UniProtKB/TrEMBL annotation:
Miscellaneous note of the record: Reaction proceeds by a ping-pong mechanism involving intermediate methylation of a conserved cysteine residue.
Top-level taxon of the source organism: Bacteria
Protein name: Probable dual-specificity RNA methyltransferase RlmN
Note on cofactor: Binds 1 [4Fe-4S] cluster. The cluster is coordinated with 3 cysteines and an exchangeable S-adenosyl-L-methionine.
Originating gene: rlmN
Any one GO CC term of the record: cytoplasm
Cofactors that this protein relies on: [4Fe-4S] cluster
UniProt function note: Specifically methylates position 2 of adenine 2503 in 23S rRNA and position 2 of adenine 37 in tRNAs.
Enzyme class: transferase
Organism of provenance: Mangrovihabitans endophyticus
SUPFAM superfamilies listed in its UniProt record: Radical SAM enzymes (SSF102114)
EC number per UniProt: 2.1.1.192
Keyword set, alphabetical order: 4Fe-4S, Cytoplasm, Disulfide bond, Iron, Iron-sulfur, Metal-binding, Methyltransferase, rRNA processing, S-adenosyl-L-methionine, Transferase, tRNA processing
Length: 367
């Protein structure tokens, strides 16, 4: 695991760590306020700390966890993607997306993913390891700093939302995921001070962890990567469905929505001639009718060498029409970042291919 970082600890833990360095406990609040409140890591900028203490405190509590390998922008600067290298060489990705009324960070919870969904570049690469609490949080704080510096065009200069839809299955890294959510939502200097209601946690359907999250009483939105309404197809597209079937997964999602009052987001990647048939739209509509749920249709982000492709626009429109006719709120996700390997895992796959001398088309598998 990476070196200990301020974000791995609650405030009491930081106070204990500071005391262990021979500093007064209140220094923990000072350095926390710099990191979470001012988005500052540079010791020289922490002028309220004694000069003799700055380097010692930052070296011990703010070690470098993420080193940018590639940074790309598109959508006239409104979308920015970063590929990070961790202390052990593992690669993770995060994306910053600006809109006129908000800025959203999409972050990773694992390096790689063990869920093995065949149309997903990250899933096909396999799991390297779980991220630490601080490695998760540091992505968000870094992106919040980018937003504050005006790097995202046409958007407010403050990060307001975080979605755990980057690399990995968040609920497979459960304890660190929940601790990270608490760091992000606790007020400064304890944390970043985001609203719980502006945090979205995605899952392929790990039912015990979904129910555990519901019991946490965190008002986060749950996003369920469903991708098929029937067990036969979902067994293939989302292999964890072989353990927890559609009915059980949806029941856990609906219970979370009922407990939090937050409608569950049903993520559905439309794949040409695979899951985009009208009868599947009708079945999905029947499963969701009258429930606190919203369907987020995702046009598949095709990659070179992949057998999977996005559904044609007329097919997509008919799928939307049928869901809405069933009374199910439905939107089509904004296709951000296609020209910068926007789908999760693609930028990391390209980097690995470049290092290994493998053509990128052979390395990139899917969305």
């Amino acid at each position: 695991m990476p070196p200990r970082h301020l974000a791995d600890l609650d405030l009491a833990g930081r106070q204990s760590a500071v005391a262990g360095l021979g500093e007064p406990a209140f220094r923990a609040k000072q350095i926390s306020a710099h990191y979470f409140g001012r988005l500052v890591r540079d010791a020289e900028a922490m002028t309220d700390l004694p000069a003799r203490s700055r380097a010692r405190l930052t070296d011990d509590l703010l070690p470098t966890l993420l080193t940018p390998v590639r940074e790309q922008a598109c959508d006239d600067g409104a979308t920015r993607k970063t590929l990070w290298k961790l202390h052990d060489g593992a690669l993770v990705e995060s994306v910053l997306m600006g809109y006129p009324d908000r800025v959203t960070a999409c972050v990773s919870s694992q390096a790689g993913c063990g869920m093995a969904c065949p149309f997903c570049a990250t899933g096909q690469a396999g799991l390297t390891r779980n991220l630490s609490v601080a490695e998760i949080v540091d992505q968000v704080v870094s992106l919040a700093g980018d937003a504050a510096s005006g790097k995202v065009t046409g958007a407010p200069p403050r990060l307001s939302r975080v979605v755990f839809m980057g690399m990995g299955e968040p609920l497979a890294n459960y304890p660190r995921l929940v601790a990270a959510v608490r760091r992000l939502t606790n007020p400064s200097p304890e944390g970043l001070g985001l609203s719980q209601r502006h945090i979205t946690v995605s899952t392929v359907g790990l039912v015990p962890a979904m129910r555990r999250l519901t019991a946490e009483d965190l008002a986060v939105t749950l996003a369920l990567s469903l991708h098929a309404p029937d067990d036969d197809l979902r067994d293939e597209l989302v292999p964890v469905n072989q353990r927890w079937k559609v009915a059980e997964v949806l029941a856990a999602a609906f219970d979370h929505a009922a407990r939090t009052g937050r409608r569950v987001s049903i993520e559905y990647a439309l794949i040409r001639d695979v899951n985009d048939q009208p009868w599947r739209a009708d079945l999905l509509g029947r499963l969701l009718r009258g429930k606190l749920a919203h369907v987020n249709l995702i046009p598949l982000n095709p990659t070179p060498g992949s057998k999977w492709d996005a559904s044609p626009k007329p097919v997509e429109r008919e799928f939307v029409r049928r869901l809405r006719a069933a009374g199910v709120a439905t939107t089509v996700r904004d296709t951000r970042g296609r020209e910068i390997d926007g789908a999760c895992g693609q930028l990391a796959a390209t980097e690995v291919a470049a290092v290994q001398g493998v053509p990128a088309a052979d390395a990139e598998v899917g969305q």
